[in-house]
């Protein structure tokens, strides 16, 4: 059976959704920032990109190029709503859908195409139309088609904005000889740099090397991955997407402050705030974990510590007790700009023994969950974080916590 995969990627997602809702922003260079006062552009509109203002630029660079650039704080709730609509569209086409990030998905139509979708390219156009109907006429998408996920993703990457492109046996070699590694999913900056030492910049060039030769430079794992890419085959890392992990292995949360922190009450309050979110996510996914990690970052220094327990935890108070203990190991020799905590070694929470003393805690926590689920996280929260600006849960572009955000 012939495998056919579609990769759909919305153009300039964060900026496009804002332009869809606010017509006065259309046809204008727009930069999306995380929050008021932030200087990094986490997304830019297609008009800004045309001027050379890309994702990751900072406000000062952007203003040098175009002083009137419009800056808008991101609206993560809106993006998540739009992603849920996209997910529905994709799942109406095939049951085999993998949401890769907020605005990207792989749709495997191999099992349904013969009767329902004779032409993958036509289907691609239909998807583009459906997206416009559901999300608005300003929203355009690229659709890539290939016989595996690598080729589908490359196709959508190099397609002209708002178009459909199929990679097949006829154009495969030409495309692999013309694209650069930065266009290839999974090949990061460091690997691209290493390959430059061999004067290799295009995937096709790798066909002239053996696995051993490449292995000396990048190690055996990447040598094999790269050779697969050179022939347009799916690398192992993308094949892994096929096997849905039974559950997430860890849940973490980090926040970068607007200033440096050194007051203990403030620091503890922020840590508690982060614990609340991690526990809320952990419980919603019906998991429990037994490794707790804390990372504190100063301007040039960092502190990391973790503890692995013999039993599982899933309550806010337990998590905070351990985070406070780890925090006590830090000798407080710098001011903190970034905080991160993580609960790892997660397992489904019906498969592990809880400490008996926590049964009461479970009842309290369950009541809290119900109220927060109905009225939003932090509706009920302890007095310790009341006076602090609350740090809200946040959707990242990568959907590391897709089970939580999309209710998969
Ligand atoms: Mg996109």
Distance between the termini: 28 Å
Structural Rg: 24 Å
CATH class of the largest domain: Alpha Beta
Q: Which secondary-structure class do the elements indicate?
A: alpha+beta
Q: How many discrete domains?
A: 3
The unique ligands bound to this protein are:
magnesium ion
CATH superfamily of the largest domain: Reverse transcriptase/Diguanylate cyclase domain
Largest sheet: 5 strands, mixed
Give the rounded overall mean pLDDT: 85
- Estimate the helix proportion, in percent: 40-55%
The DSSP helix count reads: 15
Helices and strands, in order, run as EHEEHHEHEEHHEHEHHHHEHEEHEEHH
Which strands sit side by side, in order, in the main sheet? Answer: 5-6-1-7-8
Strand content: 15-25%
Unreliable sequence segments: 383-387, 395-399
Per the principal axes of the C-alpha atoms, what is the gross shape? globular
Question: Care to describe what's here?
Answer:
This protein has 408 residues and is of the alpha+beta class. It has three domains: 166 residues, 2-Layer Sandwich (Alpha-Beta Plaits), CATH 3.30.70; 74 residues, Orthogonal Bundle (DNA polymerase, domain 1), CATH 1.10.150.20; 157 residues, DNA polymerase, Y-family, little finger domain (Dna Ligase, domain 1), CATH 3.30.1490. It contains 15 helices and 13 strands. The chain is globular and about 65 Å long. About 2% of the residues have low confidence. The site of magnesium ion has 4 residues, from strand 1.
């Amino acid at each position: 059976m012939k495998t056919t995969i579609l990769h759909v990627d919305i153009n300039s997602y964060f900026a496009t959704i804002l332009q869809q809702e606010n017509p006065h922003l259309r046809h204008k260079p727009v930069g999306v920032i995380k929050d008021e006062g932030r200087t990094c552009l986490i997304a830019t509109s297609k008009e800004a990109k045309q001027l050379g203002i890309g994702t990751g630029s900072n406000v000062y660079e952007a203003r040098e190029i175009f002083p009137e650039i419009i800056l808008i704080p991101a609206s993560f709730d809106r993006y998540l709503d739009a992603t849920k609509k996209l997910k529905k569209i994709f799942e109406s086409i095939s049951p085999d859908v993998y949401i890769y990030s907020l605005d990207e998905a792989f749709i495997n139509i191999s099992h349904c195409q013969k009767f329902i979708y004779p032409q993958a390219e036509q289907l691609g156009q239909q998807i583009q139309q459906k997206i416009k109907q559901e999300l608005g006429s300003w929203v355009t998408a690229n659709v890539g088609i290939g016989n595996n996920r690598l080729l589908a993703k490359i196709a959508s990457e190099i397609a002209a904005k708002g178009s459909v492109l199929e990679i097949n046996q006829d154009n495969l070699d030409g495309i692999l000889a013309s694209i650069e590694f930065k266009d290839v999913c999974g090949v990061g900056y460091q690997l691209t740099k290493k390959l430059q030492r061999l004067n290799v910049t295009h995937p096709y060039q790798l066909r002239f090397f053996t696995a051993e030769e490449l292995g000396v430079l990048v190690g055996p794992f990447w040598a094999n991955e790269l050779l697969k890419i050179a022939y347009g085959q799916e690398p192992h890392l993308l094949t892994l997407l096929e096997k849905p992990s039974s559950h997430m292995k860890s849940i973490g949360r980090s926040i970068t402050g607007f200033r440096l922190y050194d007051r203990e009450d403030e620091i503890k309050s922020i840590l508690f705030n982060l614990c609340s979110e991690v526990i809320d996510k952990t419980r919603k996914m019906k998991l429990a974990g037994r490794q707790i990690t804390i990372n504190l970052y100063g301007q040039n220094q960092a502190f990391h510590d973790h503890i692995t327990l013999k039993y599982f935890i899933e309550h806010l108070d337990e998590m905070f007790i351990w985070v406070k203990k780890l925090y006590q190991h830090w000798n407080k020799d710098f001011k903190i700009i970034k905080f991160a905590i993580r609960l790892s070694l997660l397992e489904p929470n019906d498969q592990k023994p809880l400490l008996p003393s926590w049964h009461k805690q479970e009842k309290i926590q369950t009541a809290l969950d119900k109220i927060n689920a109905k009225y939003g996280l932090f509706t009920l929260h302890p007095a310790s974080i009341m006076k602090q600006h609350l740090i809200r849960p946040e959707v990242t572009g990568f959907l590391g916590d897709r089970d939580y955000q999309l209710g998969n």
